[in-house]
Amino acid sequence: MMSRILAVSASEFAIARRNRWVFMATGIMTLFALALTFAGAAPTGSLGVDLLTVSVASMTTLSVYLTPLLALLMAFDAIAGEAERGGLALLMTYPVSRGELLLGKFAAQLGVLAFAVMVGFGAAGATAALAGGAGAESLAALARLIGTSILLGGAFLALGYAVSAVGGSSTGAAGLAAGLWLVFVVLYDLGLLGAVVFDDGGTFTRTVFPWLLTVNPADAFRLWNVAAAEGVALATGMTGAASALPAWAAPAALILWPLLALGLARIAFGRIEP
Amino acid sequence: MTDKPALTLEKVCKRYGKAEILKGISLTVKPGERVALLGHNGAGKTTLMKLILGLTKLTAGRITVAGAEPGSAAARRASTYLPEAVAFHKLLSGREQLRLFARLAGESPRCVEPLLERVGLGEAAGRRIGTWSKGMRQRLGLAQALLGQPRVALLDEPTSGLDPISRHDLYAVIDEIAARGAAVLIASHALTEVEARTDRIAILRQGRLVADDTLEQLRAQAGLPIRLRLTAQRDGAEELQTRLGGLRVNGTAVELHCRPEEKMDRLARITALGGLVADVEMAPPSLEDLYRHYSGEDRR
To answer: Which residues form the ABC transporter domain (chain B) (predicted)?
Structure first.
């Protein structure tokens, strides 16, 4: 089983290297992270934290948007494209299960994403540390940001596979992936914001709202990073919701999401007749 | 090699919604036997192959592949498939693609190089498949069908888009697969393509198996007429027609049809006419005629 997953993974990784996904993802991550770090250099003095902390806070916000987007862009074609080309039918005649195919692709694309995140955020973090100093706490925050970004990417890669299996065609899957991004990253938060404003500090805001945040992987990601580091919380202004939840809630949600999404993708993939 | 069938189909039915694609197909293929599966586009050939491969589910009936259920790990290990339109990833090289298949099939990557040589891709193997011609991709498809020790080989339109030399090579490879003891099922829409290279011919028509026998037997059963074309001496065509019957084709020729067993008798009568006949041309029913007869296209 392992050797088949590795075989799929190896060829998937070769493809990612050649269609320049490795290069593009890493380039985009690095560019944005560096730009935000330099833009964030201004408020350091007023908040009384080091530049790396501010940089991590801005990169957290960046990662919420960018990581799911890159993950979905990489994943949406994984099954639909293969099925359209006719390659899936041939693959399925080999003694390889759908789960193994899925895991092989997942491992390769998560590797690409992890590489991009580590290089991008690492480079920006190093720049910030060199320019404005860093403490043990801000270094831990950077490591956490990188780790949680990879988890977030994993969740959206797997969601992308589910969408790819449901979409029917490459274009259908692309549309669904765009919708998914919009819902999870933008609309969900807008909806919650509306509800909180309407509730005006009532029971919903105090009890239900923080839990609803953990249901969305993008918000769970934000919460985890905010709750764990005081400095980051200060810089993003998200302390309220974070303090209302037990410390394990956001990490648990973010770790469960990739697994849950992979399960969903496997079910959706199982319904495809190549 | 045993005589136990490597592939058996019993009353196989397949329905997509209301459309009945296959209506009770029974067929067996023994190890080492090459069977041609003929039929028009839409007759159900590809569906039948997909059922055997376990890519789609049976509505009714039973299929065993080397004794195993279609789609099971054992059946997948025992069978190989060459799809009609082979689609590989453009960005992988031929060698990488074949290595992936070898590893998925549980074969050593070391078997890849000899296989590439075997199908004549030794030199191109390092280049990306996106730069290959259709014939080269088809060869790569064949190479992956040769992986392992297949006991059932399914080839869907293997010759489509190949030049005559590649076609010749292809059949050499197919013979090799059969000689190693695999049951080979070749889907095609033209009898002329598979005639000399198969042991048995099965013809699908609108989801039913209308023929399943050797070419000689099919010929005998069909009893198609032999066509005789006589060219008359100058101005003799009319007299020729009144004496022998048949059809005037143009100014000087008459066409006759006769059953195979009447052939000698007819010829004797023709020779008896002596100088009236300038030439006789005899055409046995062609493969195309035979295929049309079974696939139901000859009802004019």
So the answer is: 7-231
